[in-house]
Amino acid sequence: MDKFYQTHDFWMEHAKFPVHRSLMDSIDWSYRLIGIRGPRGVGRTSFLLQYAREHYARGGHQCLFVSMNNFYFQGCGIVDFAGRFLAEGGQVLLMDQMFKLQGWKEQLVECYKRYPLLRIIFTTTSVPDSEEENSELSQICRFYHLHGFSFRDFLNQQTGNEFKAYTLSEALDGHEMLIRNITNKVEPWEYFEAYLRHGHYPFYIENRNFTESLLKSMNSMIETDILLSKQIELKYLSRIKKLLYVLAVFDDAAPNISRMAEEIGTSRATVMNYLKYLEEGRFINMIYHVGDSFPKKPAAIRLHNTNLMYALNVPNMDEQNRYETFFVNCLWRHHDVKRGKRPGQFRVDDKYDICVCDKLKRVKAPDGAIFARYNLEVGRGPDIPLWFFGFLH
Asked: In a structure prediction context, what are the per-residue pLDDT tens digits for the chain, which is 393 residues long?
């Protein structure tokens, strides 16, 4: 065990945490088994280390961070290891990348049954396997989702501020005063373009070549997380990668599933399954007409965030495309986002009609519509600066 404690102490001494992740305050830490889901690059490992730093003294043996990248666990598993840790006075095991361990769900369930005094917090991919929803683990574990940086997170990290997040209703009803509180301290639009290019993934802070690092994470996510979780044969890997590129370069018209199937050499049904996997992997967001949902054909498909647009070198990266991608990314976590009747319009929670448009553009919209306007610094009435929607999480 000494080697594991030494590695833990090294991480505690050298790990850096640019901002306090808001998810930290949303978790009920009293649960004995907690799973943190998230795609690669959003800071799953750092999240566990930050929890250890904030809750346990350095040099103690009550909390231990371990990674399933260690070959020890491939040979010995985690059940006996957890027992040894508990016997030596341990209380909380932090286990990173659990999905890489064969039989990890069954082993976690065994730990839960054997060691009632032990708490385990683990990370795993955002892509669930086909058996996970109905597994015994899902009945005893509380899962949470870690997402990439919001524009608010990015602004806090860049400026040293601690701006809070707002609910959608707060933002819509009181945006003029709330924005004034922000602009009294910083001019957010000066940071907005940088966020669109590289602010969603926290590793921008450490990596000089952000695009190469993001491409590496994207490839690993598809090659390991999706293929492993969905048990897809390696020979189909190129089809999924090509589909992602096709989605990036297609124009803004409604997605043509038959054309996509032809492009990658497979069936329409397989394309729909691949789209679902890419959405679970946080590569895309599928947007449906009101009343529709998967497995129906989506009304529109957007890349999950604008950083992916730059990494994939999207050729038709006009303002409208970029800003709709940003808008959907801001709302999809906590809201139901549907396609509106006209281009650039969205129906949110079947309650709000929100139009994404330029500050100078006159738009024909439903009565009571709200306008998320880009190139606008501060808003008034139904006109809200698009960047402010980045404060919703």
From this structure: 889 999 999 988 888 887 888 899 999 999 999 999 999 999 999 999 999 999 998 777 899 999 999 999 999 999 999 999 999 999 999 999 999 999 999 999 999 999 999 999 999 999 988 666 668 999 999 999 999 999 999 999 999 999 999 999 999 999 999 999 999 999 999 999 999 999 999 999 887 799 999 999 999 999 989 998 898 999 999 999 999 999 998 766 679 999 999 999 999 999 999 999 999 999 999 999 999 999 999 999 999 999 999 999 887 788 999 999 999 999 999 999 999 988 899 999 999 999 999 998 888 888 999 999 999 999 999 999 999 999 998
Q: Does the N-terminal peptide bond of residue 116 adopt cis geometry, omega within 30 degrees of 0?
A: no
State the Cα–Cα distance between residues 222 and 238, nearest whole angstrom.
10
3-state secondary structure (DSSP) of residue 102? coil
Say how many Å lie between the first and final Cα of the chain, rounded.
39
| Domain range 2-145, its CATH number among 3.40.50.300, 3.20.20.70, 3.90.180.10, 3.30.950.10 | 3.40.50.300
For residues 95 and 12, the answer to whether their CB atoms sit within 8 Å is no
Contacts of 141 (CB under 8 A, 6+ apart): 31, 33, 34, 35, 108
Which helix H or strand E contains 325, and what residues bound it? helix 319-331
- Any alpha helices (H) in 15-114, and if so which ranges? 44-55, 71-76, 79-87, 104-114
Max CA pair span of the chain: 69
Instruction: Determine the Cα–Cα distance for residues 109 and 117; give it in Å rounded to an integer.
Output: 14
Domain limits, the chain? 2-145, 158-189+315-393
